[in-house]
Design brief:
Structural class: alpha/beta
Order of helices and strands: EEEEEHEEHHHEHEHEEH
CATH class of one domain: Alpha Beta
CATH superfamily of one domain: P-loop containing nucleotide triphosphate hydrolases
Shape: globular
């Protein structure tokens, strides 16, 4: 049976103005300095696909995810998204610093599309997964950055979704919580085979764990990334880590 298109991008372009207020001379006139984060990008993603995106910093990876999530609007082109999106990009967005963790679960749960009954039903699971103990009753501003990350991630992943967008967020967690992240994402993929997962990361190992199709963004354009190249990158990454830390293989 032919899979349905979950995400369709057609000729998406997104530019940002640099050095606001400054101009550069172009031809016979003046133009603002602009950076083209995405350049005429077209992409179809089908239900159940697990996509890994690689590319250097500033290549446009996060901009692409933000456009799919509806956080950023493209300058031109068209976007179609079929299904509910949960984005693990800016996890602290939607959290109020003066509210307690308990209150923020209720607030942020609504913002990511959960119903009040669903929040109430899954509340204890969210608290347990976050693992921040009695701080759940303290103001959010008293949390360490790691605790904020734990709570925000817990709320996001306990919200049912059709499309999951992940942007290098696991690096903000300690080793123990990184393991929970791996296990939870794998559980979501296994439980919802039609769910789309798009992962942006510099870690080949992380990409390989959750992706079966690979893309590379270079200077705002998408090129295909082969599995053989990813395997090569994993081996190279493994050797570099062993040389740096002398801790043995990371795989």
């Amino acid at each position: 049976m032919k899979r349905k298109v979950a995400i369709s991008l057609k000729k998406i372009t997104k530019t940002y103005t640099l050095d606001r207020g400054k101009f550069s001379l172009v031809g016979n006139g003046f133009n603002r300095n602009v950076f083209k984060a995405l350049d005429n990008v077209s992409l179809d993603v089908y239900q159940g696909e697990k996509i890994g995106i690689v590319g250097p910093n500033g290549a446009g990876k996060t901009t692409l995810l933000k456009i799919i999530a509806g956080i950023t609007i493209p300058d031109s082109g068209s976007l179609t998204v079929n299904g509910k999106v949960v984005s693990l990009i800016n996890l602290s967005a939607g959290f109020h610093h003066d509210l307690t963790g308990r209150e923020n679960i209720n607030l942020n749960g609504l913002l990511v599309g959960m119903r009040r009954k669903e929040i109430k039903r899954r509340f204890d699971e969210i608290v347990k997964f976050a693992g921040i103990g009695s701080f759940i009753n303290e103001a959010f501003y008293t949390y360490s950055s790691g605790m904020k990350f734990r709570l925000a991630f817990a709320v996001a992943v306990f919200s049912k979704c059709d499309i999951l967008l992940i942007d290098e967020i696991f690096l903000s967690a300690d080793c123990e919580f990184q393991k929970r992240i791996f296990e939870k994402i794998r559980e979501m993929q296994d439980f919802c085979p039609d769910m789309v997962t798009i992962v942006s990361s510099h870690s080949p190992t992380f990409l390989w764990s959750f992706s079966d199709r690979f893309l590379e963004i270079t200077e705002g354009k998408i090129v295909k990334r082969s599995k053989s190249k990813i395997i090569s990158d994993i081996k190279k990454y493994d050797l570099e880590v062993r040389d740096l830390f002398s801790l043995g293989s990371v795989l």
